[in-house]
Every structure is written in C-alpha cells, then in structure tokens.
Write a sequence for this structure.
C-alpha cells in the first residue's frame, strides 16, 4: 500500500494518541477539518473533541496554553498552520518552551511538539513558504527535527512525541505528497541520528528536509561525471549528528551543504563552519554551500529561481578543486 | 459566599462601578453600598493577613537594602502593594497554583517559599531559585503577560484530570497591554478554565503612567470583551481584597468560569533600584498614597474592632524580624557558582555539543582555581 508523508504523519499522531492518553492535538482547523493539509484528518472522530480540538486563532495563545497543559501532565502536539504564521508564538517558544526546564532545574519539563509545515516549492503566495528552522535551532533547549522521507515522517514524529524535551517538528510542505510503499509503523533510532541517504566516496552532500531529494537528484546526475556522492540526511538539526558528518567528510574529503533557507546566518553556515573545523586535515577543497537567496521568499512565478536546484548544486560541485574528475562512469 | 456578579450575560460580566472598598483611608468601615454585595471576611483571617503583610513589608525593605549592599542584582519592590501580595495568596489552597511576576516576591514569601530561595533569581542565579512543583508556584515571569496563557493551560489541564485546582495569575497594568493578556483571557473564557487573573494596577509600567497604557473605563472592564466576569477593588484595602478574591476563587472553583479582578494600588518605590523615579513622577503624588497605606489601614480597623492587640502587633513585628534575621546571614554568603550546573538542565540529557562546551568551561574554571591556590 502506498503512503504519503501526510498519511504517515497522521498515522504517527493516531498511534501516539492510542499509545498514550496524555497526548492531545490542538491548533487552528485541526478538528473537524483535519488541518489545512489534513495531517490531523479524522483524529477528532476517533479520539473525541477532548483529545483533538480547535482553538482560537492565536498562535501565542496556543503555545502558551500547551505549556500550561504540559506542566500538568499532558503531552500536547500543537499545529502551527504555516511557517510564517508561527511567528506570533515566537516569544512563547523562545522565552518559555525553550527555557522552562532550565529555569526550574528540571522540576518542570515540557514534553510538547510544535508541528510547523515549512519551506517552499508548493506555489504558495507570500507568507506561506518560509524556512524558519534557523530561528528555532538557535534557541538552546529546543530540539529541531525535520523528516525527508515518508518513513522518517512517521518514526521521527513518534520519537518527538515520546521525547522529554520540547521538539519543533518541521514538516517540508513540498514533500507532503511524496510516497512510499513501506508499511507503517517503522521506527528509526531516536532523535539526533543522521542517515546516509546514499552512500558514496567522492563528495559528501549534507542536507535535510526538503533539500534531501534535491541532493539525491544532484548526486544521481553527478554520476555522469563519474562522481560517487554520499548524501547525509540530518533528520535532526538539534541535536546535530556531528559524528556522522565528520565520518563521511573524513572519507570523502569534500563537502557541500544544501539548504533551502536563506544563506546568510543560516543552518548551512553553521554546518560549513563545523565541517571545516572538525575535518580540516581531511579536506581537499573548501566546504561550500548551496542555500536559498537572501531575499524574501519569492512568489510562485519566481520561486524556481530561489530554490537550490540540481544545476546549482552541480555548479558548486565543479568548484571543489578537482585536479581531474574521476570520470569512472565513462 | 457567592460572587455577586454570578449572573451571566453582558451586565453580569461588568465590574462594580467604583472599586469595592470596605475600609476608609483611616481604617473605618465604609457604608454597605461600597461593599459591592461582598461579605466582610472573618476577623481571624484578617488578623492573619495583617501578620503576613507586616512580614512582607519587612522582607521587601530587607531585599531593597540587600540590593544596595550588592547582594541582589536587582530588586523590584512591591512596597505599598502588600494587601494585593498577601490577599492574592491567602485565598488560595495548597493545591492551587500561583503564577507570579518579578514584582511578586512578597507573594512568594507569603506562599511559604524560603525567602533566600525566593530571591534566587534576583540574586543572579540561572534558575528561579525554588521548586515550582513542590510550592505550586510557577517561576516568576519577566516577559510581562507571557505567563498568563500558562496559567490557563494548567488550570484547564487540571480540570480535565478532575483535580480541584484554581490558578491565580498576577499581572500588572502594563501587562494588560500585551497580546498574551488578550490571548490568555480569550482562551480562559473559551475553554472555561478555572483561573483568577489579578491585575495589580500600580499605575506605572516603569515610567509610563496608566493614562498611556489604556483608555478603558477600568482595566477590569476589559473582561467583558472576552465574556469574563470582572471586578475592581481598592488594592490598598486588605479587607476588600480578601472579600473579593475569596469570592472570586470560590466561584471559579465551583465551575462558574474564569474571573478578572483589578486591584487599584500604587508602586511606592521606583521600578527597581536602577530607576530614577523623579524623572517621571512628583513626590506629592507619592505622598498622597502614603495616606492610603494598606498596613496602617488594616491595623487601625482591626484594633478598633478589637481583633488586634498590642501583643499581636508585637508578635507580627517579631516574626518579621526573625525572618530577616534568618535570611540576612544566608544572603551575605557568596552563592557557589558551579560552572557545570549551567549545562545540566538545558535538555533532559546534554547533547554532545553541550558536553564539549561544558568540559571547556569546567577546564577553564579549574585552571583559574589552580592559579588562585
């Protein structure tokens, strides 16, 4: 049976709610409607309006309310309707969600998940396509998780709901309708373990969420040049699997980071800095990145110009100080 | 005792036309029409409140002194607001939750929290100082109004679990301008959460006066927009506060929905020790509020009613001195700074990156300690 990422997320929520009565799902339009992307489809039917419910249209209130419920024994999974609509909740996230465990020396923990559909590539009008992961990854106390496959959508969401720390769970909208034939449930290692999406020996691509398929396509295209490229899917930005990246780059000696978010001060910048620091003596070329442009995310007619593309990735691969390309395929 | 505003519908949501008042500034009982239909609280409760207010004021004075001595990083005094600080806690049961702000340390002490722990944050530590679960008191909130949705969520969650629990959330006049005040009241009403919002309107948000904060007839009037029953009360009248807040907590506990109570009071001191108060308000205004001192009013009333003797007053002063004597030497000890502790509770388990940073900081500290020896 074929499953989409949306269905996998829905199944993860359903299985988590069946496994633990304290799991509650709420947000805007998540009840009868099932969420604007249908991720919460029919949960209200199965579990009742006490377990899956609509709230007033107020993201800060939703987040603060979830904090209070988590303080009294619930495991809230809240939905922010779109990346940009999560900004009103930012103060709650930055000042409270991220810090409450620390402020109370562990007396109060917040096992809550904030689900955020993010990124572009779906022809959304303004305010519907931001890649806001850097904002959250910059806040100590939060975990930031993002799946790139249908299987990981299920297993990472289950792990996030089970986690004792608050998790910002970022769902790549572009991949919502991606498909897999793997039967659910599947469980991967817990949060913080990257995945080798494609093994290879010449270059390491580091990607996450919506950029993983781009990285895989570029790696496939590069075989025409005789290049055997490894693709690492981070799965989790916080905690970050430095060891997996380091092991790969120490083998390949070359690294390109691919991220859809704005380039400046983004996750890609952090990854490049870490790789050059940790793998300096293995590197055959500067660590480069292919990231989003430093302009407000553009409207549908322009977004192909913004997004990291296979061609843009391959152009950067050409800059990796090759004496001569392996050209094994020829 | 039932709150007189129990009737639902727009009129039933409105607060009294003028603040409920039981005592004149001279501590005489007011006429019945100023009582807003509330009952005079039992005398022995008021005597206890008096005792706690005396202790609270001494504590507050000591904390201000400790700041001048460099023992606290900062202290926002609540001098003049003791009636609110004490009554807001006295009406709660041990099972209820308190959601205080940074100006509510006297309320924390009234709640029974060790005064040194209550000052942990202001002393400069990285955590709130006390155990919020054991004390059922959330960490003091600094970003104003942001704790209010937490009170709503917690109270709603408790009701879902069938617990007999009311949340009391303190906020100031400035805090009512924040978006989270609006969102919290709206959520409280929609989810029928057992919360009492107590606005301590002390007329200043640092330097900004109430007139620049709101054009509402009173801050209590904001409740009607959310469908929340509201009341306003003289915040320097401990008798009126006990009457109104007891009724509010009882009504909320009975399942009649959340309430908003505005207490009209005054911040006698500067915002903090670092605030040049003469830049924005006249000493004459402060002098007017000295006349309305909540402690003196309550003492006069209780003495005249025969509910407070010289011995009782001395006992309260003695208890206050004991508290201060207990805390002073402990506050004069330099807190132990443990570099590794900063990393312990960022996550349930530290990440690999945090362990690296912790090891670096600990090694630096060890090196410094070695040089000192």
């Amino acid at each position: 049976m074929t499953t989409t990422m949306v269905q996998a997320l829905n199944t993860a929520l359903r299985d988590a709610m069946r496994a633990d009565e304290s799991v509650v799902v709420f947000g805007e339009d998540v009840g009868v409607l099932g969420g604007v992307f249908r991720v919460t489809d029919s949960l209200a039917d199965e579990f009742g309006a006490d377990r899956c419910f609509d709230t007033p249209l107020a993201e800060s209130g939703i987040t603060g309310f979830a904090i209070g419920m988590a303080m009294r024994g619930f495991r809230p999974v809240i939905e922010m309707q779109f990346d940009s609509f999560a900004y009103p909740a930012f103060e709650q996230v930055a000042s409270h969600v991220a810090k409450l465990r620390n402020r109370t020396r562990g007396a109060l923990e917040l096992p809550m998940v904030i689900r955020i559909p993010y990124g572009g590539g779906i022809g959304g009008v303004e305010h519907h396509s931001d890649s806001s992961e850097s904002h959250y990854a910059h806040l100590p106390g939060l975990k930031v998780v993002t799946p790139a496959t249908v299987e990981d959508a299920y297993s990472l969401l289950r792990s996030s709901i089970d986690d004792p720390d608050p998790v910002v769970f970022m769902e790549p909208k572009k991949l919502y309708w991606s498909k897999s034939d793997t039967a659910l449930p599947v469980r991967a290692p817990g949060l913080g373990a990257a995945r080798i999406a494609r093994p290879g020996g010449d270059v390491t691509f580091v990607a996450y969420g919506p950029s993983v398929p781009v990285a895989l396509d570029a790696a496939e295209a590069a075989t025409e040049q005789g290049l055997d490229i490894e693709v690492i899917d981070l799965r989790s930005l916080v905690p970050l699997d430095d060891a997996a990246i380091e092991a790969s780059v120490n083998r390949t000696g070359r690294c390109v980071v691919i991220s859809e978010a704005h380039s400046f001060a983004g996750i890609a910048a952090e990854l490049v800095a870490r790789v050059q620091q940790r793998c300096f003596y293995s590197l055959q070329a500067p660590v480069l990145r292919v990231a989003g442009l430093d302009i407000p995310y553009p409207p549908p007619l322009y977004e192909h110009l913004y997004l990291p593309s296979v061609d843009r990735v391959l152009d950067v691969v050409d800059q990796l100080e090759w004496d001569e390309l392996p050209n094994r395929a020829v | 005792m039932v709150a007189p505003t129990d009737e639902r519908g727009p009129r039933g949501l409105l607060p009294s036309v003028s603040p409920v008042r039981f005592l004149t500034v001279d501590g005489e009982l007011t006429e019945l029409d100023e009582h807003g239909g509330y009952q005079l609280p039992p005398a022995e409760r008021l005597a206890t409140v008096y005792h706690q207010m005396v202790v609270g004021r001494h504590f507050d004075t000591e904390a201000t002194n400790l700041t001048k001595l460099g023992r606290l990083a900062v202290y926002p005094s609540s001098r003049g607001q003791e009636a609110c600080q004490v009554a807001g806690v006295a009406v709660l049961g041990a099972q209820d939750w308190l959601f205080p702000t940074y100006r509510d340390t006297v309320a924390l002490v009234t709640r029974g929290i060790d005064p040194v722990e209550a000052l942990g944050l202001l002393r400069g530590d990285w955590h709130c100082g006390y155990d919020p679960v054991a004390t059922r008191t959330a960490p003091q909130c600094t970003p104003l109004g942001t704790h209010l949705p937490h009170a709503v969520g917690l109270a709603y969650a408790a009701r879902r679990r069938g617990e007999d629990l009311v949340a009391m959330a303190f906020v100031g006049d400035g805090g009512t301008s924040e978006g989270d005040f609006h969102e919290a009241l709206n959520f409280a009403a929609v989810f029928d959460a057992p919360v009492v919002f107590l606005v301590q309107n002390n007329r200043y948000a640092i330097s900004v006066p109430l007139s620049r904060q709101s054009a509402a007839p009173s801050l209590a009037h904001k409740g009607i927009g959310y469908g929340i029953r509201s009341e306003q009360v003289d915040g320097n009248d401990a008798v009126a506060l006990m009457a109104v807040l007891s009724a509010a907590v009882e009504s909320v506990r009975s399942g009649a929905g959340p309430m908003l109570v505005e207490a009209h009071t005054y911040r006698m001191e500067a915002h903090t020790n670092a605030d040049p108060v003469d830049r924005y308000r006249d000493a004459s205004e402060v002098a007017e509020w000295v006349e309305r001192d909540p402690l003196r009013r309550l003492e006069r009333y209780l003495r005249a009613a025969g509910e407070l003797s010289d011995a009782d007053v001395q006992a309260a002063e003695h208890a206050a001195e004991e508290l201060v004597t207990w805390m002073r030497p402990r506050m004069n000890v330099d807190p132990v700074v443990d570099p590794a502790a900063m990393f312990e509770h960022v996550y349930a388990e530290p990440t690999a990156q945090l362990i690296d940073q912790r090891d670096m900081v600990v090694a630096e500290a060890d090196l410094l300690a070695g040089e000192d020896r």
